[in-house]
Specification:
alpha/beta; eight-stranded parallel beta barrel
Amino acid sequence: MYPSNIRQKIREDALILGTSMFSREAHVAAAVYQTGPDWVWIDQEHSPWGTESVGTIAVQGRQSGCAPVIRVAWNDPGLIKKAYDVGAVGVMVPQIEGPDEAARAIDYAKYPPVGNRGIAPWFASLMGISPNAVIENANQETVLILQMESVKAYERLDETLKLEHFEVLLVGPSDLSASLGVPGQIHHGKTENVMIDVAERMKGSGKALATTFTDPAACRRWISAGYRMMNVSSTLSLGTEQTVRIFAELREEFGQS
């Protein structure tokens, strides 16, 4: 059911690499999974697609040994429940401002007795597995990712980290920079100082620390700083950048005509 073993990787503080899923087409998703990510970021917060568009690619991820992670639009029980039920191994919840909101996300994401998530694992039939097997193992095998994206969330970080039953904290540098008064400046000293401090305070927490960057050089830097779960751009961006370089090299070598 959960061939990615992502929870084990979190426990071992292993490097967990992912990329953004830029399409809802099954053949495009297959190509992305073939690149070998540990997880993929399927965004439902800012994208125009509905939940019905992601079920097939979430199941594809499971079958490929990758953890599909759906970022829901908000900390809402219906959105979180449906994301897991269509096949997400992980659900990411944006703009968690402190322990109270984090506790609500846990309640929405976990089956009883930990939380109060409703029971109906829709994806089980697509994979030919027993719904009861999903129900019995979900709390131990799924992942809940909470996003820290503001000064308010940062100021209450220690309180949030005391909570059990969420597995990953993801620092969102773009919204964090805006909250710090330097919108869009993800490499500004204010943004970076917060990210460095979060990495220090997360040590020994038993939770994975995650973030996202488009530049592979920035990914390398922050992995070295302690961000062991990294979203590395998208295969669309990386592929188009490589294509631009190849075109430029060929035109320089052989001329424009």
